[in-house]
Amino acid sequence: MALTNFPLHFFAKCTYLGTFTPQNLNLVPTIDQFTGIKFNIYSNDHVPPHIHAVYGEHEALLEIRRKTVYAGFLPPKQLERAMEWLSANEKGALSIFYQLNPRLKK
Fold this sequence. Notes:
The chain is α+β, with helices and mostly antiparallel strands and 106 residues long.
């Protein structure tokens, strides 16, 4: 599944009781799932642009442009699949990262 031309609200499905402000708006939308791996992108995050790949109790931060593990761990088979997903969805993942983190865009 390629991630292109999806509106941000498609990914940001959350329930919050209160007023949204830049200080308390910390969304963690799951942008996709692939072979049991969830791909999340946090709002109010940090550089380098990355996604959180979560499989069971394991989590790895994957740098989007370089397609490398920035931090964390995934079992080898799931890491291979996560990198496969990232290769196919790099442009969409980068776009969503910057939609959720506009202050980081250069």
